[in-house]
Amino acid sequence: MLELNEVCLQEHNAIDGHTLSMMAEEEQLTCLHGGSAGKRSRLLLAMLGLEPVANGVVSVDGEPVTPATARTMRRQMAYVPDGLEPQGEVTVYEAPTEDDVFRLRANRHQRLTQEALEQEMNRVADPSQWKDSRVKLLAVAALLERPIVLVDNPPVFAADYLLQLARQGRVVIVSSDEDVFVEQADQVLEL
């Protein structure tokens, strides 16, 4: 379970004043809706312990996500960003390969193979949609078998897949303004 208790984000050196509370449970799809896409993304990052909250508490299974506990808490989470973009000065950028992701220390215990990845990608979307990098990211998130899946701006064609992941016992939280996610969600948190 992932809980927000009276969480308020910091907005440009000021507190935005809007408190958010919710309890996302296993087998449920939760949709963060409304507000700006940036604010929804920052809220997902706060759940990961990567964005500070001005007030309130983010907790996982009753344990607060703090700077001291964030790394441990993230081991229970899979995060799918809206896209992968390099930060800082880049002279030549090469996107990470599946092998790069599989070799990460946090993922080494998983038996992830190219064949398993392709099978999961088939569950996410038709191969004609594989050019959308989020297909691969969603497949990797599912294969990691983490109990909490956070997805920033998922593609519309993945709505049924994400609902299915939730029904398999995971906490799935998406950030989206798309009607299909609002309609399928067990819970909608308006920002």
Explain the overall architecture.
The protein has helices at 37-47, 70-74, 98-103, 114-124, 133-143, 159-167, 179-184, and strands spanning 2-11, 14-15, 20-24, 28-33, 53-60, 63-64, 77-80, 148-152, 171-175, 187-190. It is of the alpha/beta class. Strands 1, 2, 3, 5 and 6 form a 5-stranded antiparallel beta sheet that branches. The protein has a 5-stranded parallel beta sheet with strand order 7-8-9-4-10. The mean pLDDT is 87.
Weakly predicted, low-confidence segments: none
Helix content: 25-40%
Describe the oligomeric state of these chains in a short phrase. Answer: single chain
Radius of gyration: 16 Å
- Rough outline: globular
**Average predicted confidence as pLDDT:** 87
**Beginning-to-end CA distance, first to last residue:** 20 Å
**What is the β-strand count?**
10
Structural class computed from helices and strand pairing: alpha/beta
Number of helices: 7
In short:
Helices cover 31% and strands 27% of the residues. It is built from seven helices and ten strands. Strands 1, 2, 3, 5 and 6 form a five-stranded antiparallel sheet that branches.
Set out the fold topology.
Blueprint: E1 2-11, E2 14-15, E3 20-24, E4 28-33, H1 37-47, E5 53-60, E6 63-64, H2 70-74, E7 77-80, H3 98-103, H4 114-124, H5 133-143, E8 148-152, H6 159-167, E9 171-175, H7 179-184, E10 187-190
Parallel strand pairs: 4-9, 4-10, 7-8, 8-9
Antiparallel strand pairs: 1-2, 1-3, 1-5, 5-6
Helix pairs in contact: 4-5
